[in-house]
Amino acid sequence: MPRRLSQQGWFRVVMLVIALEIIALSINFFYAPINVAAGGATGVAILLDAAFGINRALTVLIINIAMIILAAIFLDKSTVRNIAFGSFLLPVLMYITPSHRLVEDAVLAVIIGGAVFASGIAILYRLEASSGGTTVPPMILKKYFKINSALSLLAIDMVVTLFNLLVSGTNAFFLAAFSLVITSIVMRYIETGLDLKHQVTIMSNERLADIQTMLLQEDQSLTVFDVRGGYTDNNKEMLMVMVDNANYGRMLRRVHDIDQNAFIVTTNVHEVHGGTFGI
């Protein structure tokens, strides 16, 4: 058992390094070369580099150290441990990773950079880790003032984004704002869309038994509920099936082949844990 835990620990460290390197790549290859700061400590670093030539990695390191001190004062030790590794490693990776403009078109750079950045952040969230920086103040505000951390983090990012107007102009500001939207969409998709399932409930007045037989023949697990019609007050049965995205369309066609008037309600389910797709 200790050996297994050790292997899991090493895997987590490797994934943390990969996630932080992805973030470093997004900054050094896409955002920094076009002087677009889309929030966070890395955004501040890009602004100071563009305005005064201050090394970006050094800026991120200083900000992260300050945030670790704040976390140590106002938050618990576990939070400090969760952010410490990323806070120190990210600036190191930013320093050793070459900085080069891969994409000439600024809009395309922001789209790709936002997607790459979101991928790294999403991995960190899955690992319950953080790259430090401006994620700390929202935690403090939530703990002491019950302010929603997502809203306060967005507010901080918007303030940083506004400084693009002073440093790089209007074009950079709109690109940075667009990048925040791209990052938000990609993160939401990574966190939920890649594991999307469909919870399907099926009712049929005449052919429910045939539909159930068809589903079982296709090794589709299902649950049968006893329900009562609100209008007719009649007792009926309803099938509940959990199906993945790839098999959803085929299942609907098979059901409608049996009963064109079958009543079907589908709900998107972001994650399913344990067991099979039914009972």
From TrEMBL:
Xref: Pfam families: DUF2179 (PF10035), YitT_membrane (PF02588)
Membrane protein topology class: Multi-pass membrane protein
CDD domains per record: YitT_C
InterPro entries (UniProt xref): DUF2179, N-reg_PII/ATP_PRibTrfase_C, UPF0750_membrane, YitT
Signal peptide residue numbers: none
TM region(s), chain numbering: 12-34, 54-75, 82-100, 106-127, 147-166, 172-190
Domain spans labelled DUF2179: 222-274
Keywords: Cell membrane, Membrane, Transmembrane, Transmembrane helix
Localisation per UniProt entry: Cell membrane
Cellular-component GO terms for this entry: plasma membrane
Domain of life: Bacteria
Protein name per the record: DUF2179 domain-containing protein
Taxonomy of the source species: Bacteria, Bacillati, Bacillota, Bacilli, Lactobacillales
